[in-house]
């Protein structure tokens, strides 16, 4: 099992809309797609903030300053399979508030599997997330987001993504 530390962000525009990326894996069609928070692995020698700045630029083309990254107050672990490898991720989620309107999302800086696995990006209102029947990553996003944005510290139990979880989430 591959174990790694990961940063994610609830990115908010000036209208408090949340940026979500539509992801999937061509090698795992049963997974389908999900809307996830931007982010990714922390590379050797990177801080949480440095990794989040890099990941946001790579995945979306959005450039932010370090002071826009709030300390992570949502922590979670997740186990899942990706490209044939079982993974355990320790995720730390921060809020990032953008200055101004929602920027156009760019794919120019995506590397490796990001080119194939990121299908779309969309700015969502909180109410759209709460009422949607879409599949989210983290799966708990609709239930946790209001408390997180109100300043709560969130610590979730391990979330396991496997075929049974996918079927249950889709039904």
Structural descriptors:
four-stranded mixed sheet; 35% strand; globular; 171 residues; six-stranded mixed sheet; Nucleoside Triphosphate Pyrophosphohydrolase; 23% helix; alpha/beta; 5 helices
Describe the protein in words:
With 171 residues, the protein is α/β, with parallel strands linked by helices. It has one domain (2-170): Nucleoside Triphosphate Pyrophosphohydrolase. It is built from five helices and ten strands. Strands 1, 4, 5, 6, 9 and 10 form a six-stranded mixed beta sheet that branches. Strands 7-2-3-8 form a four-stranded mixed beta sheet. A hairpin with an 8-residue loop joins β2 (18-24) and β3 (33-36). The longest helix is centred in the first third of the chain and has 13 residues, at 48-60. The chain is globular, with a radius of gyration of 15 Å.
Biggest sheet, in brief?
A: 6 strands, mixed
Give unreliable regions as ranges. none
Kindly state the percentage of residues in helix: 10-25%
Task: Give me the number of helical elements.
Answer: 5
CATH structural fold name: Nucleoside Triphosphate Pyrophosphohydrolase
**CATH homology group:** Nucleoside Triphosphate Pyrophosphohydrolase
Strand element count: 10
Which CATH architecture would you pick?
Alpha-Beta Complex
Mean pLDDT: 87
State the distance separating the first and last CA atoms. Answer: 28 Å
Assembly of the depicted chains = single chain
Q: β content, as a range?
A: 35-45%
Any idea what the radius of gyration is? 15 Å
Total domain count: 1
Please write the CATH class name. Alpha Beta
Question: Which outline best applies?
Answer: globular
